[in-house]
Please model this.
Amino acid sequence: MRNESEQRDVPFATTEITIVNELGLHARPAAEFVRCASQFRSEIFLVRNGQRLSAASMIEVLMADLSKGETAQLEALGSDAETAVETLAQLIKSFQD
Model:
């Protein structure tokens, strides 16, 4: 287990996302989201209603059950955290069914 000072040195980024896709974050866009999230070194999470769900897990992304207009926090912890959060937030905005 890392000590507290080591945890503070790990880059962290977060942003709020809003689902704009008419059909929400359903299977097809969720799969694309997971593929994109898996390309980063950082650990990435969707946080909604007190649940912290892995952005690299299709099942967990679908468990977030995000419909149009709903929001969640996107969090990343690791060397490319800021880039990961920015990229994934833009991807969420681009989904249109």
About this structure: The radius of gyration is 13 Å. The CA atoms of residues 16 and 64 lie 14 Å apart. The longest helix spans residues 81-94.
